[in-house]
C-alpha cells in the first residue's frame, strides 16, 4: 500500500490523540465527518428510499442498490411516478440493459412493451427546473464556483445549479451516482420507468435536459463494475448479458425490521462547511499543494448507514 | 433503447444526406470527428504506447489495456522510468491490487519487495509541473474555463492546467482515464513502478500532487469494471482477488506486425475547435438546452485505432 496512505495517516492521528500530542496534520475531510455531532445528521424517510435487488453476481454474492429520491420541490412528477412504479412492483423481472463506460448504467423493460401502471403523471420540459423562491428558507447553502451554471448551491443535501443564489431557475446536477430518467427525443417522453445512474465523470451537459430523481447512496459498485455493453451507447448485445432485477421497493413498503436506515450530513451544518473547505484545501500529510477549490461534484454529501 | 437515441439520430442524418436534404440538426461531436480530414490526425509513436495484458476475465475473454505516454516535456523522469520498467519486463507477474469506486484502479508489486531495475531516475516535487515557456510554439490550444486552475490548455492533445496561457507553471490534469504514479507520503517517493488509472469523476485535487505519465486509450473497461476492493482505499482483501498482469510492453518492443497503431485528433486542428464547441453546445436533436460550456475533462481527445 505505497500510495494514498490514508490508513497509516489515520493511525498516526489516532496515536497522536491517544498520546495527548497534537495531531500531526489538520483534519482530513473523513476525520471531520467522523466527529460530526449527531444533530448534524438528517434521517432519510423510508418513503424516500428505493431498494433495488438485482440477481447475484458471478461469485453468487447478493447485490443491493439503495437510491435516495430527490427532495421536493425537484422533479415532482417523476418522483411520484417512481413511487407508483415501485408500489406496482413494475420493475420486478425487468433488467439492467445498458452499461456505457464513463457514462451511465441504465435499467427498465428491455422489451419496451411492458404496460405501465395507470395514473402516471405527465411531465414536461418545464419540470426540469424549479423556481428558487419555492425553496425552504435556511436549507440552501452556497456551493462552489462552476463552469456550467451561474451559481450553485446545496439544498437539503442535493447539488443544484442555478441562475442565482436567491432567485431564478434551479436544477439538480449530474454528479457521479445521480439517478435520472431516460427519455426519447421529445423532452416530454420520460415517465420514470427507464432509469439510469451516472457511473463516470459528471455529464453536466445533461443538466436541464433530463430529469434527475435521486442518487445511489449504497451499492453503486454493483452498477459501476458491471461489464460494459458492446452495442452503441453500451447496450448489451445479447439478452443473457442483461442483469435481472429481482425487485425494486420503496423502503416504506418493507417490514419495519427490514427497512434500511440512512442519514445524510446536513449541508446547512457547521460540519458541512468544514468538510467542504477541507475537500477544497486538502491539508492532510499526503498533499503538498492544496487545490484551493472543489467542483460541486467533488463535494459528495456524506451518507451513513444506521442499520 | 428509449433513451439517448444516438443510433436513430445518426440514421436520420445519414438518410437526410442520402436524400439530398439538409441534415435535420447540426452535427454532433461524433459526426464532426467522423469527417475530420486525415491531416488532422497525429500518429502515436510505438515508443509512446504501453501495451498491458492482464489475465483473462471471468468469461475467459482476453483483456488488453493500451496506455499512451504523456508528451514531453511533462513528467520526464517518470516517463523514462516507465519505459525502463517495461523494457525490464518488471511488471510481468505483478497485479492489479486496488480498485476504489469512483476513484482509481492501481497496479504494481503487491509484495512491495520486488527489486527495481537499476538506473531509475530520481524525481521530485519540482517535476510535477513544467514551465510553459518550454512548450513548442503552435502546439498549445486554449482550453475552457476551470475552477481549479487559472488557465487551461491542450498541448499535443494533453489536458493541462496552468498559471497562465503563455507563461508560468503548467501541469497535466486528472481526467478520467489518466494514468498516474503512486507514491508514499513524501512527494519524492514515486518511481513509476506503482501506477493507477482514474476510473471516476476527475479527482482534480490530485493535480500537482502526483505525477501523471499517460492515459488509457483502449481497454479502460478492463480496469473500470473490475470488482471493487473491500479494504480501505479499495485494496483487495485476499491475494486471489488480485488481477494478474501477464505482461506490459512498450509497443516498440513488439514485432512490427503486432504493434497496435493509434492516432489522436490534433488539438491544434480546425476539427478540434469544432468538436470542442459542439461538446459545449450540444445541438443534436436530443438536447433542448445546450450547456454553453464543457469542463476540460468533458473534452476527451478523440483517439482512433488504425489497426
From TrEMBL, chains A, B:
<protein>
    <submittedName>
        <fullName>Cyclophilin type peptidyl-prolyl cis-trans isomerase/CLD</fullName>
    </submittedName>
</protein>
<keyword id="KW-0413">Isomerase</keyword>
<dbReference type="GO" id="GO:0003755">
    <property type="term" value="F:peptidyl-prolyl cis-trans isomerase activity"/>
</dbReference>
<dbReference type="InterPro" id="IPR029000">
    <property type="entry name" value="Cyclophilin-like_dom_sf"/>
</dbReference>
<keyword id="KW-0732">Signal</keyword>
<feature type="signal peptide">
    <location>
        <begin position="1"/>
        <end position="18"/>
    </location>
</feature>
<dbReference type="Pfam" id="PF00160">
    <property type="entry name" value="Pro_isomerase"/>
</dbReference>
<dbReference type="InterPro" id="IPR002130">
    <property type="entry name" value="Cyclophilin-type_PPIase_dom"/>
</dbReference>
<feature type="domain" description="PPIase cyclophilin-type">
    <location>
        <begin position="79"/>
        <end position="248"/>
    </location>
</feature>
Amino acid at each position: 500500500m505505497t500510495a494514498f496512505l490514508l490508513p497509516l495517516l489515520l493511525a498516526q492521528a489516532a496515536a497522536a490523540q491517544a498520546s495527548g500530542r497534537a495531531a500531526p496534520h489538520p483534519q482530513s475531510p473523513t476525520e471531520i465527518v467522523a466527529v460530526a455531532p449527531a444533530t448534524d445528521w438528517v434521517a432519510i424517510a423510508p418513503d424516500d428510499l428505493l431498494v433495488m435487488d438485482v440477481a447475484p453476481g458471478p461469485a453468487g454474492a447478493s447485490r443491493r442498490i439503495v437510491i435516495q429520491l430527490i427532495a421536493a420541490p425537484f422533479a415532482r412528477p417523476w418522483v411520484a411516478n417512481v413511487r407508483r412504479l415501485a408500489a406496482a412492483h413494475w420493475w420486478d423481472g425487468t433488467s439492467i440493459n445498458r452499461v456505457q463506460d464513463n457514462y451511465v448504467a441504465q435499467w427498465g423493460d428491455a422489451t419496451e412493451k411492458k404496460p405501465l401502471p395507470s395514473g402516471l403523471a405527465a411531465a414536461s420540459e418545464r419540470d426540469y427546473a424549479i423556481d428558487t423562491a419555492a425553496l425552504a428558507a435556511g436549507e440552501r447553502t452556497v456551493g462552489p464556483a462552476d463552469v456550467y451554471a451561474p451559481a450553485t448551491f446545496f439544498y437539503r443535501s442535493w447539488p443544484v445549479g442555478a441562475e442565482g443564489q436567491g432567485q431564478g431557475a434551479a436544477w439538480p446536477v449530474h454528479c457521479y451516482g445521480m439517478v435520472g430518467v431516460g427519455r426519447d427525443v421529445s423532452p416530454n417522453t420520460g415517465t420514470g420507468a427507464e432509469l439510469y445512474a451516472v457511473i463516470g465523470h459528471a455529464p453536466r451537459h445533461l443538466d436541464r435536459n433530463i430529469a434527475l430523481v435521486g442518487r445511489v447512496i449504497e451499492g453503486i459498485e454493483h452498477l459501476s463494475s458491471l461489464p460494459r455493453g458492446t452495442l452503441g451507447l453500451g447496450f448489451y448485445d445479447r439478452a443473457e448479458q442483461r442483469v435481472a432485477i429481482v425487485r425494486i421497493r420503496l423502503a416504506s413498503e418493507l417490514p419495519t425490521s427490514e427497512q434500511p436506515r440512512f442519514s445524510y450530513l446536513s449541508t446547512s451544518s457547521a460540519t458541512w462547511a468544514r468538510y467542504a473547505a477541507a475537500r477544497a484545501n486538502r491539508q492532510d500529510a499526503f498533499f503538498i499543494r492544496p487545490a484551493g477549490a472543489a467542483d460541486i461534484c467533488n463535494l459528495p454529501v456524506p451518507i451513513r448507514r444506521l442499520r
